[in-house]
Amino acid sequence: MAQGGGGAGRRPRVLLGATGSVASVKLPLLVARLLALPQxxxxxxxxxxxxxxxxxxxxxxxxxxxxxxxWQTWTRLGDPVLHVDLRRWADLLLLAPLDANSxxxxxxxxxxxxxxxxxxxxxxxxxxxxxxxMNTHMWDHPLTGAHTRALRQLGYxxxxxxxxxxxxxxTGLGAMAEVDTIVQAVQTHLRxxxxxPEPTREPGSTQEPGSTQEPGSTQEPGSTQEPGSTQEPGSTQEPGSTQEPGSTQEPGSTxxx
Length: 257
Ligand SMILES: Cc1cc2nc3c(=O)[nH]c(=O)nc-3n(C[C@H](O)[C@H](O)[C@H](O)COP(=O)(O)O)c2cc1C
What we know:
By secondary structure, this protein is of the alpha/beta class. 27% of the residues lie in helices and 14% in strands. The chain contains eight helices and eight strands. A six-stranded parallel β-sheet has the order 3-2-1-4-5-6, sandwiched between helices. Strands 7-8 form a two-stranded antiparallel ribbon. Helix 1 (27-35) packs parallel to helix 8. The radius of gyration is 17 Å and the shape is globular. It starts with 12 loop residues before the first strand and ends in a 65-residue tail after the last helix. Residues 1-6, 194-244 and 246-256 have low confidence and may be disordered. It binds flavin mononucleotide. Flavin mononucleotide binds at residues 19-23, 48, 50-51, 99-102, 133-134, 138.
């Protein structure tokens, strides 16, 4: 399979990472809206264990991966490493919703589950969009500002949360951006891509071509390359942003596929 990065002649590939926010109830809608984009992206989902409380993975018309799949596909040296292959597969990584816990992990570089490993291994030349979603008191905590700032400084694009009465009853900032807003942000990147859709989708099909692999399969979704990227670890970017929680996107986060 071709390496990620958006080659001409195939559909763009969006990897959707979902975490344990109540906003994960919107995953079916978000996936449907992504699949309906004119660029006809392939979509795959990686979710945390807590995210599964809010949607039924089997209800989505796309492959859904979680922690067990990482270890079911690897038993010995030479076996595919799922988080590396998903990272290679994807042109764009969308973290929606990104809860406070996983936001903190990303900011701190932790990688203790499949999704966090994909994020930690992410090729920062490819777009990463994140959509914070949390209780308004969590949002107002100074740690949230530090964490979102850290992500923006890495070049990741924030799709700002919105103010509303949250599922818990509190009113204020912290709700995940509207699905339309998120899809529009993704589309901006796909539009700029040189990738062109392949005319292989069956009319009326909800399953995208080339994505027949089931979670837990021993076939890797990405390329046949060995684990171990030649990309340098870490970034050359400096901390120092003053952008606050709830603010809009960081200048310079306009990477495209
Ligand atoms: C009903 C319910 C709703 C939750 N919603 C959110 C939320 O919107 N945002 C958030 O940051 N945490 C929320 N949490 C807490 C997270 O699920 C918890 O921090 C969990 O450890 C996150 O794990 P993960 O980041 O690995 O998915 C919620 C918890 C429950 C029980």
